[in-house]
């Protein structure tokens, strides 16, 4: 540092500090993600190429730097090959995608009018309505799923009510069905659909609706031509926020679903804890991640495209 | 097709319209607004407004924010339902006709150009909703693009356009349906000064060429004055004065109009004599006792307290006392001055101690006449420039 230009050096010191601080603030959460998401996934990915053995840990090591230097890498495609051979996994994946997709669609159908209504409500009412949407998060997720069991069970509230008013004679089988799974997923994830939809609908310029009406569009045409295309970012964001957790959902199908509603989350659990086949479970998890990452990448690409 | 041809294509067979239909008792109004009111909860936005607008007119509603002008426009378009009253356009009562079926189009203040459609799609949208054939839509959009000089930008999305270009898209989109009435909400407000002047003339020419009735809402008195055939000044939900820009500027009804429409010097005075044949009266200023003549449409009894107004640009500043019977003359000292290049604004403190504003055209290059602070000056103006105003 030269003594002749003290002003210059002090002036430039400040932005440097800013820059370091910014890097630090961004760096900490990224480091967190790296440590607790990317690193564990790398381990899972590694295990998916191993062979199961009865040992501790229950899989072979990937590298063997023993005497035979030609075969030091002991990776195997067997687990992935097994996934393609056994029907069970394809059925589980397909069922998961189906349940997640249908649930997402129902969330969209129910959530869109709700989000629209909230966005168009008077500001004071709007806050109350938003609060009501977020309110269930104050109760434990598990507790709320158990509450559904109480509602839908053979001697549950819904069945008792229907029998009491004489609509049915014997209790309906509602719990342990696909319907209960859909109900649980839609109920749990609908706030994630409503909130992004609300955010896009709320900031939409209402004069665009007036303009469409002015040019001869009937209310439903205004919706199709203007409201729907302009709320597309909200629809995509909401759908991803519902679809992604729903596809790997374990608790809801385990508690509310029947034996046949074998979603991939449950298959994964069984492979891991019941069969103790860690390599195969890891392969199942890796494929699941790929299925989930593809829609996110498509979404990001659609966001980057110039409008 | 060149620009002239496309204008012809847009032109409907234009019937002869008198230059001043509102003075012709036989002329049939095109838009009739009868006793129109709009109540929002406990706020009366539009208060029993009655107005006739004639075919081919460029009518401006001028008022400050919250005066009810936008609500009135939105009721015409059909976005708001009137609480009371009637809107009749070309003989048809609009009460049961929703916005999408009215023979009216609107250019929005924010332009409300659809951001997800190209310029072409925006302009063609109205025709598409009218279920016109693809080929016809294409030719009419092409003509319209030529008319507003946007042909090169047909495939662009709105956010690649400048404010002026977006404004032209909004205008073209509204005009393409050949509406009976075009509503314009603050059409020039979002443009910069140079562009505003240019667009203003384009709008006037377009209106003249197409013969469509324009109803403009604005808060800008200059815009209102230069654009309109007639102006209605609105305040607190009511029309305060309706007339040609000249009428409203030179013979304002009351102090609000006089002050809203430009600047004016106001003097409190008492009537001392009246002359019904020349429609003038003589009044004595309360502060100095100076007597002056003023023109007045209304009649006042002797002894009535009135307000007399004179516009700053009617006043001549001189260092010698001017001569003439028809002049109102007073003396004062320059207290403040501002040089604008083309004109200068003087604030002169008169003998009575009040400030009189004078706007003087700088018609000479010489600095010999330039006034300085505290210079003693005479202010004089033709007595016909004095107008009597009500509160």
Topology:
The complex is a heterodimer of chains A (307) and B (391).
Chain A: H1 6-47, H2 78-85, H3 87-120, H4 123-134, H5 141-152, H6 157-164, H7 178-202, H8 206-214, H9 219-230, H10 232-247, H11 251-256, H12 264-274, H13 278-304
Helix pairs in contact in A: 1-13, 2-13, 3-7, 3-10, 7-10, 8-9, 10-13, 12-13
Chain B: H1 3-10, E1 31-40, E2 43-53, E3 58-63, H2 69-77, E4 84-89, E5 92-93, E6 104-107, H3 119-129, H4 134-147, H5 163-175, E7 181-185, H6 193-210, E8 213-218, H7 221-227, E9 230-235, E10 238-243, H8 245-250, H9 255-260, E11 265-275, E12 280-285, E13 291-295, E14 305-310, E15 316-318, E16 327-339, E17 343-350, E18 355-361, E19 376-382, E20 387-389
Parallel strand pairs in B: 3-8, 3-9, 6-7, 7-8
Antiparallel strand pairs in B: 1-2, 1-4, 4-5, 9-10, 11-12, 11-14, 12-13, 14-20, 15-19, 16-17, 16-19, 17-18
Helix pairs in contact in B: 1-4, 3-4, 3-5
Characterization of this structure:
Chain A has 307 residues and is mainly α. Chain A folds into two domains: 1-47; 86-304, MetI-like (MetI-like fold, Orthogonal Bundle). In chain A, 72% of the residues lie in helices and 0% in strands. Chain A has helices at residues 6-47, 78-85, 87-120, 123-134, 141-152, 157-164, 178-202, 206-214, 219-230, 232-247, 251-256, 264-274, 278-304. Chain A is globular and about 80 Å long. Chain A starts with 5 loop residues before the first helix and ends with a helix. Chain B has 391 residues and is of the alpha+beta class. Chain B has two domains: 3-103 and 179-256, Rossmann fold, CATH 3.40.50.300; 268-389, Beta Barrel (OB fold (Dihydrolipoamide Acetyltransferase, E2P)), CATH 2.40.50. In chain B, the strands form four sheets. In chain B, strands 6-7-8-3-9-10 form a six-stranded mixed β-sheet, with helices on both faces. In chain B, strand 16 (327-339) and strand 17 form a beta hairpin. In chain B, helix 3 crosses helix 4 and helix 3 (119-129) runs parallel beside helix 5 (163-175). Chain B is globular and about 75 Å long. In chain B, 36% of the residues are buried. The chains are: A mainly alpha (307), B alpha+beta (391).
């Amino acid at each position: 540092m030269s003594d002749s230009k003290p002003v210059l050096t002090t002036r430039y010191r400040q932005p440097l500090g800013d820059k370091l601080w910014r890097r630090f603030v961004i760096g900490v959460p990224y480091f967190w993600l790296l440590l607790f998401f990317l690193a564990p996934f790398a381990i899972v990915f590694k295990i998916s190429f191993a062979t199961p053995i009865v040992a501790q840990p229950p899989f072979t090591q990937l590298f063997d730097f023993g005497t035979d230097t030609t075969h030091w890498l002991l990776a195997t495609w067997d687990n992935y090959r097994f996934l393609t051979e056994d029907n069970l996994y394809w059925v589980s994946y397909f069922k998961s995608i189906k349940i997640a997709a249908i649930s997402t669609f129902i969330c969209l159908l129910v959530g869109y009018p709700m989000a629209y209504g909230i966005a168009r409500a008077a500001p004071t009412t709007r806050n109350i309505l938003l609060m009501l949407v977020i309110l269930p998060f104050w109760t434990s997720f598990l507790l709320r799923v158990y509450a559904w069991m109480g509602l839908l069970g053979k001697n549950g509230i819904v069945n008792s009510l229907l029998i009491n008013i004489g609509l049915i004679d014997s209790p309906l089988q509602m719990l342990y069905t696909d319907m209960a799974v859909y109900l649980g997923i839609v109920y749990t994830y609908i706030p994630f659909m409503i909130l992004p939809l609300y955010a896009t609908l709320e900031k939409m310029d209402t004069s665009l609706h007036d303009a469409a009406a002015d040019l001869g569009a009937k209310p439903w045409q205004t919706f199709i031509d203007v409201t729907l295309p302009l709320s597309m970012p909200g629809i995509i964001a909401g759908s991803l926020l519902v679809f992604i957790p729903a596809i790997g959902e374990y608790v809801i199908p385990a508690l509310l679903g029947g034996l046949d509603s074998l979603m991939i989350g449950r298959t994964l659990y069984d492979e891991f804890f019941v069969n103790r086949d860690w390599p195969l479970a890891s392969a199942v998890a890796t494929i699941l991640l790929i299925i989930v990452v593809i829609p996110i990448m498509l979404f990001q690409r659609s966001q980057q495209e110039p409008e | 097709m060149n620009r002239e041809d496309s204008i012809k294509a847009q032109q409907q067979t234009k019937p002869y319209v008198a230059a001043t239909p509102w003075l012709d008792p036989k002329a049939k109004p095109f838009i009739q607004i009868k006793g129109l009111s709009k109540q929002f909860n406990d706020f009366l936005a539009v208060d029993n407004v009655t107005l006739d607008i004639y075919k081919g007119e460029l009518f401006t509603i001028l008022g400050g924010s919250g005066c009810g002008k936008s609500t009135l426009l939105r009721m015409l378009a059909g976005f708001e339902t009137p609480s009371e009253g009637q809107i009749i356009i070309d003989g048809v009562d609009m009460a049961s006709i929703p916005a999408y079926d009215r023979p009216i189009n609107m250019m929005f203040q924010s332009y409300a150009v659809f951001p997800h459609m190209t310029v072409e799609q925006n302009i063609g949208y109205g025709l598409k909703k009218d279920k016109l054939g693809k080929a016809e839509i294409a030719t009419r959009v092409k003509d319209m693009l030529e008319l507003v000089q946007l042909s090169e930008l047909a495939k662009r999305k709105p956010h690649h356009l400048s404010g002026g270009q977006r404004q032209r898209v909004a205008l073209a989109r509204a005009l393409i349906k050949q509406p009976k009435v075009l509503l314009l909400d603050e059409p020039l407000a979002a443009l910069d000064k140079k562009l505003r002047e240019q667009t203003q003339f384009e709008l006037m020419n377009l209106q003249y060429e197409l013969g469509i009735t324009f109803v403009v809402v604005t808060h800008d008195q200059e815009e209102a004055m230069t654009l309109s055939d007639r102006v209605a000044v609105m305040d607190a939900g009511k029309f305060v004065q309706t007339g040609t820009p000249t009428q409203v500027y030179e013979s304002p009804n009351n102090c609000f109009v006089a002050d809203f429409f430009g600047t004016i010097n106001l003097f409190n005075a008492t009537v001392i004599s009246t002359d019904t044949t020349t429609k003038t009266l003589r009044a004595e200023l309360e502060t100095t006792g100076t007597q002056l003549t003023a023109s007045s449409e209304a009649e006042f009894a002797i002894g009535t307290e009135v307000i007399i107004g004179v516009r700053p640009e009617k006043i001549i500043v001189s260092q010698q006392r001017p001569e003439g019977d028809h002049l109102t003359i007073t003396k004062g000292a320059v207290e403040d001055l501002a040089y604008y290049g083309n004109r200068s604004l003087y604030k002169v403190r008169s003998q009575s101690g009040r400030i009189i504003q004078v706007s003087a055209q700088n018609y000479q290059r010489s600095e010999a006449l330039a006034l300085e602070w505290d210079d003693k000056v005479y202010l004089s103006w033709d007595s016909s420039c004095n107008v009597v105003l009500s509160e």
